[in-house]
Fold this protein.
Amino acid sequence: MALDLKAIADRLRASAGISAKADIGAVAARLGLSGQAVPVGDDCAAIADGDGFLLFAIEGFINEFVAADPWFAGWCGVMVNISDVVAMGGRPLAVVDAVWANGEDAAAPLLDGMQAAAKAYGVPIVGGHTNIKTDRSQLSVAILGRARRLLTSFDARPGDILIAAIDHRGRYREPFNNWEAATTAPPERLRADLQILPEIAEAGLADAAKDISQGGIVGTAIMLAECSGVGIEIDLAAIPLPDGVSLDRWLSTFPSFGYLIAVRQDNIADVLQRFAGRDLSAAVIGAVTEGSAIAISVDGEREVIRDYRAMPLMQLTREAAE
C-alpha cells in the first residue's frame, strides 16, 4: 500500500507532542540557563565530576495520564528517567519522587508502579516528597546517574548516519501512544539492555544520541538536529515496524526503550550488532546533513517537517548556550 507522504507530513507538523517541546526553550530562557559546561536542552543536566559526569533528570506527568493509568504512570516515572540517563551514556544510580494524591488509596497504585519498576531495573528509590491530602493525583520523579563518557544531543555531525534502536517486544498501553515493552520483561534482560548505550559511549562509537520521547521519532530528530545545528533526512521505508503497527501511529509513538543515535559510517556495523545481540530492533533510518531542515522521504518524494532556522522549536542550540 502506497504511503500518502503529504498526509503523514501534515499530521507530524500539527503534532502536539512535537509543538509542546517549544515550552522547554521558553522556560530555559526565563531561568537564564546558559553558559553551562554541557549545554542545557539535553536529556539530562550533566556536571563534570572527577573522571566523569553526574547526570540529573526529572520527569513530570500530565494529569490525564496519571488519572487514567496510575500504576503505569508510577512505572514510567522510574523508566523514563532511566532512559534519559542511558541516552547520555550513563548508568542510573537512584531516584526520588514527588507524589500528590487524594488519600492513601489513591496514592497506592502510583507508589506500587514506581516500586515495581525500581525493583525490575535495579535502581533504588531513596526519598522524595509526599502530599496525599490534595484533590488530585500528580507525579514527578527525578534521577541521579553517572557517565564516564557523555553522549549528547549537541554533537551530531554532517556525514553521520542516523540509527533508530527500539524494543519491538511490546504493545500499546491504550488509549495513549505509549509502546511498553518492559512491564512483563525479565528484569535481567531490562538491566542488561541498559548497558548498551553506556558501552557505545565508552567505546567512542557514536557522536550523539537522544531517547525517543513524546514527540516520536521525527520530533526527537528535530530536537537532536536543532541542538547540534544540523539537518536530518529520514527514510520512512527504512523504519522497522512491529507486527500489526501502522507507520502513521509508529511515528507518534513513545517507546519504553527507544533511541536515535548518530554514528560515523565506520561504526555502523558495530553499533547495530550490539543491539542485535540483545534481540533489539536497530536500523539505519536516515542521515545527518548540512543545513537546518528535518525531512521525511519515501519513493523519491520528500517533505520538510520543520526548518528550525525559520521556525525554531526549543531554541537551545550550542551557540545559544555559549
